[in-house]
Design brief:
By secondary structure, the protein is an alpha/beta fold. 20% of the residues lie in helices and 29% in strands. It has a five-stranded mixed sheet with strand order 3-2-1-4-5. This is Gcp-like domain-containing protein.
Length: 222
């Protein structure tokens, strides 16, 4: 079974091919760090990766896509592309929490955070790989310190903003890579509709209505 895995929940563009069978193995992956061009690069990157492995889109049996939390535009691109591929091929598309994928493989008590921009992070807490709190969005300085963590995963640029109580833990940067995305997806289950985890309103807002000028007369169209 060949699985196409996609994540656009962060500034990075992550695309991979995973073979699932008696053993699960990575066929190939592409990670474009801080590309911020998901819309322009996702489809050509996917097709290029398939071509590199001498495969075609028609060879894909399942699609797994990260549903965030993440910014509105990035998530929309990844999820819409995954849904379009799935519809065209007639194959299942499985949505997973991107933070769950990033947390996969982290042992003990773990806190996983990703850059939410606006000086904030998306975060969730895990015990033995199971999410027990979150996801939510806060400033890095407001991340909970009541629990003693074994490991904290956060975007490297934000490490200096961690509360002092979290710096005693092992600090890593775990990403929702293809093998991890597939690991947290239930490929045996019939997937439901893709539901994005935005956690906050999109940056683009409908402009407020402007008051009508008193110089404009009322006109009745009878």
């Amino acid at each position: 079974m060949l699985v196409l895995a996609i994540d656009t929940s962060t500034a990075d563009l992550i695309v991979g091919l995973v073979r699932v069978g008696a053993a699960t193995e990575l066929v190939g992956e592409t990670v474009l760090a801080d590309c911020r061009q998901h819309n322009e690069l996702l489809t050509p990157t996917t097709l290029s990766l398939l071509a590199d492995e001498k495969l075609k889109l028609a060879d894909v049996d399942h699609i797994v896509v990260g549903c965030g939390p993440g910014p509105f535009t990035g998530l929309r691109v990844g999820m819409a592309t995954a849904a379009a591929f799935g519809d065209a091929l007639g194959i299942p598309v499985h949505g997973v929490c991107s933070l769950d994928a990033a947390a996969h493989g982290l042992e003990g008590s773990a806190l996983v955070a990703s850059d939410a921009r606006r000086k904030e992070v998306y975060w969730a807490r895990y015990e033995k790989g199971e999410r027990v709190e979150g996801p939510d969005v806060v400033r890095p300085e407001q991340l909970p310190t009541e629990v003693g963590y074994d490991v904290v995963s956060i975007t490297p640029a934000l490490v200096d903003r961690l509360p002092e109580g979290l710096r005693a833990a092992e600090v890593v940067h775990s990403q929702p890579l293809p093998l991890k995305l597939v690991a947290v997806a239930d490929l045996e289950e019939t997937p439901g509709p893709l539901v994005p985890l935005y956690l906050r309103r999109p940056d683009a807002k409908e402009p407020a209505a402007k008051p009508r000028s008193a110089a404009i007369p009322d006109v009745k169209l009878d």
